[in-house]
Design brief:
Elements (H helix, E strand, L loop, with lengths): L3 E9 L3 E4 H18 L1 H5 L11 H8 L3 E4 L2 H5 L18 H17 L8 E5 L10 H9 L4 E5 L5 H15 L5 E8 L17 E10 L9 E10 L5 E2 L21 E2 L1 H22 L7 E6 L4 H12 L12 H4 L6 H8 L9 E8 L3 E9 L2
Parallel strand pairs: 4-5, 4-6, 11-12
Antiparallel strand pairs: 1-7, 1-8, 2-3, 6-7, 8-13, 9-10, 12-13
Helix pairs in contact: 5-6, 8-9
Bound molecules: coenzyme A.
């Protein structure tokens, strides 16, 4: 059986960040301006007053304290409430390609690979910047990689589904060494004027190198023992932005063209689905629960991860067994579990086993069993 490894990872973290305190202050100023401007309508019952947000709620409900963003100023301006990203000409690198290249260079260095060694690029993320040409092909060009490239989107599970696709491609022989990038500028699809979700997302880009074990030079490689991806249709996390918006005469600012979710329902439905997925997956691979040294879980909500970890391990996981990064990064969609893996894997010993698992819109969930290789 061919051994495929993740031989390197990289994380690009934006320079700017926003604390809960700063975010809540901006939202509450916006809400007060809105309520004051609409006070007559609110008094007459024609409009509903916006309720204020709170730091205590955000931390307690999600575990998030901070998020990194590509533009802080626009998000925190109560009269703007969205990031402002420079419009670039077609001759300049697109912003997604630019952050992908930054993360990719780190992953390539980590894996000891040059562009010459890589023969395929997959951009796997929730929030693609444009319809075409594929961002992946631009990343390929900017890095000077030969071969082929394509984009794929399975929302928060894009990265794990890309790992499965890339491992299968290497096994089949269609590529030898694959670069996966997960650029997630989630602040672009978030409605910062919506109290229920304004705190959820942050921006980041992660990258990974996948190749055969025999070609890997890195001394921190993880064999992909097995992958298991599942999907089950749900409207509980949805964004209707798409290429038919013009045909459907959608107004550009329709609320449903940004991220929407029924958070409570997602929580209740996804926790059992993911716990079952991981338990089934390790069972099918005849791996005992006691052999699992680490769970690198999707980073959406700390309580969700606590439930899943407890269900899978049959006890409360120690902090180091299930590292969370969402207190610093918030939810970064497909990149979250990859950040956790990238930042918390170098203490793993040879033959230690861990599970990388994402879950999110679709619903979609991907479980990847990894073993540190000597
Ligand atoms: N500040 C203060 N109060 C707030 C608030 C805010 N920013 N946002 C919502 N509230 C209020 C609600 O209006 C509600 O009030 P009510 O009880 O009077 O109706 C109350 O707090 C509880 O809101 P609810 O949305 O039920 O909170 P929750 O405990 O479910 O937490 C999430 C919300 C989104 C953090 C949580 O449901 C979650 O993370 N779900 C999983 C989401 C997920 O994984 N999504 C994948 C995305 S890719």
């Amino acid at each position: 059986m061919e051994q495929i490894v993740i031989s390197g990872t990289g994380v690009f973290t934006p320079e700017e960040s926003i604390t809960n305190e700063e975010l809540v202050k901006a939202y509450n100023t916006y809400a007060e301006i809105h309520n004051s401007a609409n006070k007559n309508d609110i008094r007459q019952g024609n409009k509903v007053a916006l309720e204020l947000s709170s730091e205590e709620f955000i931390y307690k409900a999600s575990g998030i304290k901070n998020r990194y963003v590509m533009d802080k100023k626009g998000i925190l301006d109560p009269n703007i409430m969205h990031p402002i990203l420079e419009k670039r000409s077609n001759d300049e690198p697109s912003i997604l390609a630019e952050i992908s290249v930054k993360a990719a260079k780190k992953a390539m260095e980590n894996a000891g690979k040059t562009a010459h060694d890589i023969d395929a690029v997959i951009t796997a993320c929730s929030n693609l910047e444009r319809a075409y040409p594929a961002v992946s092909i631009e990343v390929q060009e900017l890095l000077g990689i030969k071969g082929f490239a394509f984009d794929m989107n399975v929302a928060c599970s894009s990265a794990t589904f890309a790992i499965q696709a890339a491992a299968d491609m290497i096994k089949s022989g269609s590529a030898k060494t694959i670069l996966i990038v997960d650029p997630e500028i989630c602040s672009g699809h978030l409605d910062f004027k919506d109290r229920d979700c304004h705190f959820i997302f942050g921006d980041v880009c992660t990258a990974m190198i996948l190749e055969k074990k025999e070609s890997a030079k890195s001394n921190n490689s993880f064999e992909i023992l097995s992958t298991k991806c599942i999907t089950q249709f749900s409207n509980n996390i949805r964004n209707n932005f798409g290429f038919l918006n013009n045909a459907k005469k959608s107004i550009p600012l329709d609320r449903d063209l940004l991220f929407m979710q029924e958070g409570r329902k997602v929580f209740k439905e996804v926790v059992p689905m993911v716990s079952q997925l991981i338990s089934d997956h390790i069972g099918e691979e005849e791996i005992k629960v006691e052999e699992i040294k680490r769970l690198w879980l999707h980073q959406a909500n700390k309580s969700m991860n606590d439930f899943i970890g407890k269900k899978v391990l049959g006890r409360v996981p120690e902090d180091h067994e299930q590292p969370n990064i969402l207190q610093d990064y918030a939810n970064t969609s497909s990149a979250g579990s990859i950040i956790a893996f990238s930042l918390f894997n170098d203490d793993m010993k040879n033959d230690d086993i861990g599970v990388l698992c994402s879950f999110g819109a679709g619903y979609s969930a991907g479980s990847i069993i990894l073993k540190k290789v000597p």
